[in-house]
């Protein structure tokens, strides 16, 4: 009997099979679960779209898997984040704001040049950079909410795919030899630890959710960091502190990586299952144009970020890959960066740029809605 749990694990199974197919030096890896999720979401559109229990369950999968993934990567990166910020701090600020500004600038250009609904394009901007806070800012600032949401929905998948494929293909296109890049030394003592404290792990999550729901007043807008932002702050902060009294926040890295991978494949599959029927249902000539625009905006932002980080700031690819995905606020992209670089430096780069990128998306969405076209 068809149920959401069956669809989820079928998506994971076939997605992992798809991800292991290697063409020269390229393979999808865990990102294959996104495509299998899209396929099953398209194959069973009636169940996914009309059955309320299916949507509720997929939303639970989405939130729970996101919590596991983000908390684990934050705790893994927490030991290096101080050194990374000390060495690259301002570079990450500039990089993240440049990426989001590039997308904003191209969106304004498309609005001025093309005879398209500007509210659709405002939604496409947030979709291309996979930014829910950006979408929320736009929705609270305009009356044409359904038109903005439509643009976001259509633009989201091209935005995700652009980041994933770029992270895998950039090293091949620009002849970057990942194995020769610098890596931070591993903590051998930590590697020998075999503990996993569920009490501490749960506390990190609880604090992260509380932080993510605190409203931040920026003067022109009030935002929340959301689950991703809150969990990143709590896991990076508590993990770098190490312990509070008898509560220990040091975890075995291998165990965290297993939880991270489980969270990632569930996260990607649930995105595909939630979005597959929407992509097909909304597909027509006009939505195809919006999807192409989203893809162009995403690729433009990514490559501006890449050239700035690689040739101006001279960042190693491991950390730059994570910084680009953070600048694009793309959690699926981070999964691709981790898998392609095999380095936890990608997590540190993501954690350092993500908060600034969130701020950039809020500011630039606000400016978009204030402009009169």
SSE arrangement:
Layout (H helix, E strand, L loop, with lengths): L3 H16 L2 E2 L2 E2 L4 H12 L1 H6 L1 H26 L3 H33 L4 H11 L3 H8 L5 H29 L14 H5 L5 H15 L3 E2 L4 E2 L2 H16 L1 E2 L2 E2 L4 H29 L3 H28 L4 H11 L3 H11 L3 H26 L3
Antiparallel strand pairs: 1-2, 3-4, 5-6
Helix pairs in contact: 1-2, 1-12, 2-12, 4-11, 4-12, 4-16, 5-6, 5-13, 5-14, 5-16, 6-7, 6-8, 6-13, 6-16, 7-16, 8-13, 8-15, 10-11, 13-14, 14-15, 14-16, 15-16
Descriptive overview:
With 373 residues, the protein is mainly alpha-helical. It has one domain. It is built from 16 helices and six strands. A hairpin with a 2-residue loop joins β1 (22-23) and β2 (26-27). It is globular and about 60 Å long. It is found in: Cell membrane.
Give a brief description:
Belongs to the AAE transporter (TC 2.A.81) family. The chain has 373 residues and is mainly alpha-helical.
């Amino acid at each position: 009997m068809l149920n959401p749990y069956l669809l989820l694990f079928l998506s994971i199974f076939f997605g992992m099979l798809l991800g292991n197919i290697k063409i020269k030096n390229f393979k999808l890896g865990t990102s294959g679960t996104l495509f299998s999720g899209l396929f099953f979401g398209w194959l069973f559109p009636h169940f996914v779209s009309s059955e309320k229990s299916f949507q509720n369950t997929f939303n639970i999968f989405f939130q729970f898997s996101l919590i596991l993934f983000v908390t684990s990567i934050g705790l893994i990166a927490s030991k290096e984040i101080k050194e990374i910020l000390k060495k690259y701090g301002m570079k990450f600020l500039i990089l993240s704001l440049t990426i989001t500004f590039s997308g904003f600038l191209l969106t304004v250009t498309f609005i001025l040049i093309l005879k398209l609904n500007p509210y659709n394009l405002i939604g496409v901007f947030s979709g291309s950079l996979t930014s829910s806070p950006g979408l929320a800012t736009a929705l609270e600032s305009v009356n044409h909410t359904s038109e903005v949401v439509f643009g976001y929905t259509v633009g989201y998948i091209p935005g995700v795919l652009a980041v994933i494929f770029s992270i895998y293909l950039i090293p091949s296109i620009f002849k970057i030899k990942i194995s020769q890049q610098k890596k931070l030394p591993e903590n051998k003592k930590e590697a020998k630890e075999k503990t996993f404290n569920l009490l501490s792990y749960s506390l990190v999550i609880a604090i992260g959710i509380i932080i993510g729901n605190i409203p931040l007043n920026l003067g022109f807008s009030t935002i929340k960091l959301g689950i991703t932002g809150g969990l990143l702050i709590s896991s990076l902060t508590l993990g770098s502190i190490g312990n509070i009294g008898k509560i220990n926040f040091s975890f075995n890295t291998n165990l965290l990586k297993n939880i991270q991978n489980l969270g990632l494949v569930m996260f990607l599959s649930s995105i595909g299952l939630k979005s597959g029927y929407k992509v097909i249902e909304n597909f027509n000539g006009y939505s195809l144009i919006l999807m192409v625009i989203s893809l162009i905006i995403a690729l433009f932002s990514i490559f501006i970020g890449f050239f700035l980080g690689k040739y101006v700031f001279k960042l190693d690819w491991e950390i730059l890959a994570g910084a680009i995905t953070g600048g694009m606020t793309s959690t699926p992209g981070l999964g691709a960066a981790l898998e392609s670089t095999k380095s936890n430096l990608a997590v540190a780069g993501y954690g350092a740029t993500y908060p600034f990128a969130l701020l950039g998306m809020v500011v630039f969405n606000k400016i978009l809605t204030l402009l009169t076209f």
